[in-house]
Amino acid sequence: MEEDTIKYMFKNAMNENWEEVVRVCKDNPRAQEAKITRSGDTALHVAIYSGREATAIELVNLIAHKDLERILGMKNDQGNIALHLAATVEMAEMCVCMARKVPTLVKSRNNNGETPLFLAVLHGKKKTFISLHSKCPNGDDISLCRRTDGNTILHCAIMGEYFDLALSIIYKHPSLINSHNEKGQSALHLMASHPSFFRSGSPLGIFDFIIYHCTLIDPFEEETLFNDTHSLDSDRDSKCRLPENYITCWDFINLLWKLVAIFVAKCRRESKSAKSDGTEAKKSVHGIGRDVEQPGHDNHGDFHLDPQPSGKNVYMVHHIEGIIFILYTWANDSAPSLYRAAT
Predict the structure, then answer these.
(1) pLDDT of residue 276
(2) What are the sequence ranges of the domains in the chain?
(3) CATH label, 3-201, candidates 3.40.50.720, 1.10.132.60, 1.25.40.20, 2.40.50.200
(4) Interior/surface letters 129-166, b for 16+ CB within 10 angstroms, e for the rest
(5) Between 125 and 261, where is the model more confident?
(6) What is the DSSP string of 188-211?
(7) What pLDDT digit, counting tens, does each position of 86-103 carry?
(8) Coil, strand, or helix at residue 146?
C-alpha cells in the first residue's frame, strides 16, 4: 500500500471527512486493510473509535465476501479487532453486522485474553452484551466469558457496579456464580468485600432516605435477544429527557408534584366553601339590619369578603407551588445540560 494513500486516509479520518475515506476504500480495495495509525488501526478501527457507526457499517459492506474473515479479523497493537472496539462503545447494530458476516469473530481474543463479549461487560454495555450473546455459536459456552487472569464477566459486572447487567449474566450463565479467579475470589466474595453495595452498609441522610424508599424497582425479566434490525430493549418511557442516573430524582419530584396538586385542590375547595359561608353571612346580617356593625362590615353595613380567604394557607401554597415548579422545570430542561457539563 502506498505511503501517500495511507497518509491521505489518516488526514481525512482525523478531519472527519469520512466520505472521502469511504471513496478511497471503494476505489482501492487494498486500502481497507491498510493500517493508518501508529497503533496499527485500520480505517474501520478509527471509524468505530470516532463513534461513526453508519460509516463503519458502510466500510464493512464494501469488503468482498472472500476477504471478510481476513480483514475483519485484523488486529491492532493491543490485539483488538474491530468487533472488540464496537463492543466497548455500545455499537450493538455494528456488532450484529460483523458477527453475522463472520460468526467466528466472537471467539477472537486480544492481548489480555478478552473476547468482544467480555469487553462489552467490562464497559457496562448491556445491549451489546445481549446482542453478542445471541450470536455466540454455543450460548452455554462459558469459555468466552473468562479472560486469562480468571476473572469472568460476572466478576467484571460486579466490580464495575453494573448490577442489572450482573442479573442478566446470572440468568444466562448460572454456573458463573461459583467461578473463581486466580485469587480464589468468587462473585459473592467481591460483593461481600464492598459493604456499600448493601443498605446496611450505606448510611443515608434524610433526602437520600426519602429517595431510597420512594424508588420503585421493576421485577427482573429476561430480555428479548437482540435482532438484526431493531434494538433489543425499548428505552424507559419518560417524558423528560434525562440520563438514567437522574430518573430517581425525576420520580421523586413527580411524586412531590402530585402531592402538592392534591393539597392545592383541597385548599381551593376550602376557599370556595369559605366564600359560600361569607355570602350566607352577608344575607343574614342584612336581615338583622344595616344599623348594626358586624365584623367584616364597613360603617354602611355592607359586607366585604376578603378576596384571599385563609391568607396564610394560600400564601404557603403559592410558595410550595413555586418551589416545586422550579424543581420540575430544572429536572425537565436543565438536568441534561448539567449532566453533560459534568461528564
Answers:
(1) 67
(2) 3-201, 244-342
(3) 1.25.40.20
(4) bbbbbbbbeeeeebebbbbeeebbbbbbbbeeebeebb
(5) 125
(6) HHHHHT-GGGSGGG----HHHHHH
(7) 999 988 888 988 999 999
(8) strand
Q: For the segment 59-83, what is each residue's pLDDT rounded down to a tens digit?
A: 999 998 899 999 999 999 999 999 9
CB atoms within 10 A of CB 109: 18
63, 64, 69, 70: CA torsion to nearest 10: -80
Mean pLDDT of the chain: 75
CA 170 and chain centroid, separation = 21
Burial class (CB in 10 A: 0-12, 13-18, 19+), 46: buried
- Contact between 132 and 95 under an 8 Å Cβ cutoff? The reply is yes
Give the lowest-confidence range in 211-220, 268-277, 328-337. Answer: 328-337
- Predicted TM-score (pTM) of this structure: 0.61
Alpha helices in the chain (DSSP H): 3-14, 18-27, 43-49, 53-62, 68-72, 82-88, 92-101, 116-122, 126-133, 153-159, 163-172, 187-192, 206-214, 247-288, 311-329, 335-342
